[in-house]
């Protein structure tokens, strides 16, 4: 199987360097278009889903928010303007 992965990695690299459409490249190299698409998806970069808050913990005097490995610990009496600024920065990342 590793040889097959390397073979398709090489083919996908050759296609990218060719500047051709996938269909044209497959016709020229007598490859199955659908097999090419399968391997391109299988070997392509994994797409991560957009971040969303996944944990909400309420304490007696604070709020703990966790998202994508980041945690915000918000105490009672927090500065709402500062929280808005922090969330704005995190959205931009």
TrEMBL record:
Superkingdom in the source lineage: Bacteria
Protein name: IS66 family insertion sequence element accessory protein TnpB
Source species taxonomy: Bacteria, Pseudomonadati, Thermodesulfobacteriota, Desulfuromonadia, Desulfuromonadales
